[in-house]
Amino acid sequence: MVEITETWIDSQAPNSAAIKNGQGLVKKGRFLKLHHSEDQAVLFGTCAGSGSSDYQPSADFAVPEKPVMRCTCPSRQFPCKHVLGLLYAYAAGASFTPAEVPEDLAAKREKAEKREERKLKEAAEGAAAKPKKVNKSALKKKLQAQLEGLDVLEKLIHSLIRNGLGTLDKKEHKRIQEHVKQMGNYYLSGAQTELRRLALVLSSEDQEKAYTYAVGQLAVMNAMIKKGRQYLTTKLEDPDMRLDHESTIEEWLGHAWQLTELQSYGLVSEGAELVQLSFLSYADDARLEHVDTGYWIQKDSGEIHRTIQYRPYKAAKLMREEDSFFDNAHVPVLYRYPGDMNRRVRFEEMTSSPVTEEDLAWIRNHAACSYAEAVKNVKNQLKNPLSDSNPVMLLHVSEIGRNAEGQYAITDESGQSIGLDDVYMEPTVPMLRYLPEEKLSGVSMLVMFEHSLETGRLLAQPLSIITTNEIIRLLY
C-alpha cells in the first residue's frame, strides 16, 4: 500500500476546508469503527454523521498509485471529509483492526477489478484507443475564422498605437471591451485573454506605470498576431492540419492540449520522480481564473517543471484546489506540454515517500553553479515575447548578503552576484533577514526571474532555499 502521510492526504483533498473538517472529525472522536482488510489494501470504518445515520467511508489501495475512495454520505466533494478523516486517523497511528470487507464494498471492488482486468487484457492484445476523428472541413473553417480574428485584432492594436495611449477615453476603453467579446467568436480565447489583460493594465490609476506595461503587452500581442498568422497559414496548407507540438503557439491561440494528444507526439516519460520546491496560487483577472502553480524538480534530468491548474471563477468552488506538496512524488506517467524552460507537466497518478537527505543532495547537485550561464539562458528565453516572462531556475549560492546598494544579493563561487528583488505579488526578500547565519551560505536557491520594464534590469526573487537537511519555502 502507498505510504499514507499527512502531506499525501492533503494532496488528495479538494480544498483547505475539507482538510480542516477531516482533521476535525478525528480530533472530535467521530469515528466509531476503524478497520483494514486482511491484506491491508482497504481501509474502512464508520463515522458518526450529523443526523441519525452514520457514514461508511473507505479507501481502496488495490492499485496503490490510483486509490479508490468512497463514502455513503451525500457530499458532492470528492473525497469527502469522512474519507479524509479516515486517512488522517491512519496517518496519526490510530488503531485499525482487521475485519472482513463489507459486502456492498466488496461487490464494488469486484466490479472495479473486472474493469481493470479487461483494460489489461486489451492492452496485452494491442488494442489501442481509437484516435479522435478530426472533421477537417470544420477545422478548416475554424482556422480561417481565427485568421480573420487576428486581422481584426491587428487593426485594433495599430489603431491604439497610431492614436497614442495618452488619448484613450471611455469610448476607446469600451471599444477594447467589445473586441474582447469578439475574440471569443473567432475561437481565439488566448487573444481574448491578452486583450483583456491590456484593458486591465490601461485601467490602472497609475497612468505612467500603466503606459509602461501597456507597451510591453502590445509587444506580446503583436508577436502573437504575427506568429499566429504565420502558423495558421502554414497549417491550412498542411493536408493533415497537424498540431505544433514543439512551441507554445497552440496555447496562445487557445488550444487546450489533451493527454492523448501529448501521448501521440511522444511527450511522455515513464517512472519519473519529482520533488516540489515551491507553490503559488493567484487570481488572474485576465483569464477570469484562479491559477495554482507548483514548481517541481525531476530527479533524472534536474529540469524545473510546472504543474498548472486553472479554476474558472464561476466553477472554483466545485473544483479541487491544488496546494503545496512536501513529499517525494513517484509518477508512473509524466505528460509534458510544449514549451521552453519550466515546461508545464501533468500526471494523473502518483505514490509518495518522505523527502530524505539523499533527495536533498541530488536536488542540490542539479543547481546551476555559473550565474553568467544562467543569466544567459534566462535572457535568451526573454527575447521571445511569447515565452514565459518569469522563468525559474535552481542556483548554487556561495553566499547571501547585501551589495553596496544595501540590496540583498546572491554570489556564486566565481564572485559574480545577482541582486534579489520581489517580482511576484507576495514578497519574500524581507524574510531573508530572519534566516540564521548558517542558512546564508553554501546552499541552493530556487529563484524567479523577471525583466523589469520600469528599470530595464533583470530581477530575481527567492522562492525556496535548499540546505543539506531541509527545503525552506519562502513562498508556498
From TrEMBL:
<feature type="compositionally biased region" description="Basic and acidic residues">
    <location>
        <begin position="109"/>
        <end position="124"/>
    </location>
</feature>
<feature type="region of interest" description="Disordered">
    <location>
        <begin position="109"/>
        <end position="131"/>
    </location>
</feature>
<protein>
    <submittedName>
        <fullName>SWIM zinc finger family protein</fullName>
    </submittedName>
</protein>
<dbReference type="InterPro" id="IPR007527">
    <property type="entry name" value="Znf_SWIM"/>
</dbReference>
<dbReference type="GO" id="GO:0008270">
    <property type="term" value="F:zinc ion binding"/>
</dbReference>
<dbReference type="Pfam" id="PF04434">
    <property type="entry name" value="SWIM"/>
</dbReference>
<keyword id="KW-0479">Metal-binding</keyword>
<feature type="domain" description="SWIM-type">
    <location>
        <begin position="61"/>
        <end position="91"/>
    </location>
</feature>
<keyword id="KW-0863">Zinc-finger</keyword>
<keyword id="KW-0862">Zinc</keyword>
